[in-house]
Design a protein that fits this description.
By secondary structure, this protein is of the alpha+beta class. It has one domain: Transposase IS200-like (Alpha-Beta Plaits, 2-Layer Sandwich), CATH 3.30.70. It has 7 helices and 8 strands. The strands form 3 sheets. The protein has a 4-stranded antiparallel beta sheet. Strands 1-2 form a two-stranded antiparallel sheet. Strands 6-7 form a two-stranded antiparallel sheet. A hairpin with a 3-residue loop joins strand 4 and strand 5.
Length: 247
């Protein structure tokens, strides 16, 4: 597995965000999981951390395996939740989220898949290039040789930061949804998100299938394209017969 460079930070969850990657992100409504569900996730995390590493398993591979197990539990608990807010089930609120994804902020990313569930949503996107290149003079040689007549430029592609994209989408949708729901000054989204980047082509298509099958798995529809607030339905509406970026 090739390790990419990129931003890594940790809050309640680890986040590793290599530049140019395609990210699978999950947001949930504030208060959408009860305390017992959070405790179940934390207990599972604790048990995984105590687990003996598998034979010949690299540390990065172990972390990814643990992440996927925890995420599967997290997502299933959201699908099964019988209490908490389900504001995204309101058609007018779901449309706000679609409008933000497909149009308002579409210049910021390539959107490959999404689904708006009753109490959470999944998106799969790749940030677009902010500038074609960011260059800095490598003046080490010039410093050692004052008569050097040329400097070497170090250039790298710069992408729109993922956190800027999520802040825009969550901030706008929270404001508009609260207006529809007649809620003033109340938290709409849980502050933190789950994110995971696609390592290869096979995983890329697995993630799309996972996202679009979520309403089927949750027992809401029988076919992915039957759930109106999803990339499967949007491709059908647009007449697309193959996977392609929606923005």
């Amino acid at each position: 597995m090739t390790r990419k460079k990129g931003k890594f930070y940790r809050r309640n969850l680890p986040h590793w965000q290599p530049p140019g990657a395609t990210f699978f992100i999950t947001w949930r409504l504030y208060g959408s999981l009860p305390k017992s569900a959070i405790e179940q996730i934390e207990e599972s995390r604790r048990l995984l951390e105590q687990e003996v590493a598998q034979l010949n398993e690299m540390d990065e591979q172990r972390k990814i395996r643990h992440f996927k197990k925890l995420f599967a539990l997290y997502d299933s608990l959201l699908d099964k939740a019988e209490s908490g807010p389900f504001w995204l089930k309101e058609g007018s609120v779901a449309v706000v989220m679609e409008e933000a994804l497909l149009r308002r902020y579409s210049a910021m990313y390539h959107l490959w898949a999404y689904v708006v569930m009753p109490n959470h949503m999944h998106v799969f996107l790749q940030p677009k290039v902010a500038q074609t290149s960011v260059c800095a003079d490598d003046s080490a040689e010039a410093d050692s040789d004052p008569e050097a007549s040329a400097q070497t430029e170090v250039c790298a592609t710069k992408y729109i930061p993922l956190e800027k994209i999520t802040q825009a989408l969550k901030g706008y949708s929270a404001l508009e949804a609260n207006k529809i729901l007649s809620r003033t000054g109340q938290t709409f989204w849980q502050d933190e998100s789950y994110d995971h980047w696609s390592r290869d082509e096979a995983e890329f298509y697995r993630i799309i299938a996972y996202i679009e099958n979520n309403p089927v798995k949750a027992g809401l529809v029988s076919k992915p394209e039957d759930w109106p607030w999803s990339s499967a339905a949007e491709r059908k509406r647009s007449g697309y017969t193959e996977i392609r970026s929606l923005t």
